[in-house]
Amino acid sequence: MSERDDAVELSDRRCAPCEGGVEPLSRAHAEALLARLHRDWTLDDEAKGIVRSFRFRDFYRTMSFVNAIAHVANTEDHHPDLEVGYDRCRVRYRTHSIRGLSVNDFICAAKIDRL
Predict the structure, then answer these.
(1) Which CATH architecture group holds 40-115?
(2) pLDDT tens for residues 82-111?
(3) Alpha carbon of 56 to those of 49, 61, 64, 86, 106: distances in Å?
């Protein structure tokens, strides 16, 4: 990440195409980006994904949130794994094509933090 990128809020950035052949982020880089997100995001043990759980009052609010995530995902062309229940949603970002984390995961997480 360049100094210019560091000065731009993650939520204001756009995802860039990320295909195989790109190295996943190192644990140190992932931890630095994680510090820029809401404190409820966590890095998994292998530093290959980030996860956050959300709770809601009812199914309607849960599904409204899921639809908002779908909008972000489609706009950025970067899609999370979701686990959805009546009053909860667990969001996991990982760039499947590189089998680890990319900056795109953190950009989308920051956009979700703004919902």
Answers:
(1) 2-Layer Sandwich (3.30)
(2) 999 999 999 999 999 999 999 999 999 999
(3) 23, 6, 10, 8, 23
Residue 61 — φ and ψ, nearest 5°? -70, -35
Measured at the CA of 5, the angle between CA 30 and CA 26, to 5 degrees, comes to 20
Q: Where are the domains of the chain?
A: 40-115
Strands 81-85 and 42-43: unpaired
Return the structure tokens found at 92: 């996991």
- Residue 107 in tokens: 């950009």
Q: For residue range 23-60, list pLDDT tens digits in order.
A: 999 999 999 999 999 999 999 999 999 999 999 999 99
